[in-house]
Amino acid sequence: RQTKRITCWMIRIFFAASVAFTIPVQELLSVEAVWKGAVMGIGPCILTKVLCAPFMGDARFVIGWAMVGRAEFAYLIAQMSAASNLMGPRVFSIVIWALLWATIFAPTIFRSVLARYVARKAEEKEESDESKVEAQSRNHFKPTLSLGDSPDLVEEDQEKIDPHRLEEMTVENAALRDRVAALERELRR
Length: 189
Description:
elongated; single chain; mainly alpha
């Protein structure tokens, strides 16, 4: 437990010291770096992953936004490229802005997309459960008849209706309806 805390802080210090100290602040705060970084961040870093989402099935946008990484490793690669003179300070600043856009948008939008997906799935499951309960109630819960209500009820039919089982099923049905109502209230919040 304590090792995890120490490791977490050491990683933060490592990234802050290794990447943050190599960022050329004047280049980073230039208008050119901000807008070009926005174009690169929103385009290649975000849209390429989100736009492949329609091919991913039902959870398409959840998967698309999950693929937009938070770019921790990409910062290190950018810093190593800048240190190796593979990119100049201007390009490095643009790349940092691109990674910042992905880092800011990805977790926030992913959280909301995932919440909507989970809510939709819960609603679908609830509707499915309701239809199953209705089908079961149509199959299992037949109207109770007393002998006075149906004079032509034969003795064989009387034996088929087990009053204890019918009472149990009525209690189960009431419990299921209460649970469905509670889930509906929970989803509305």
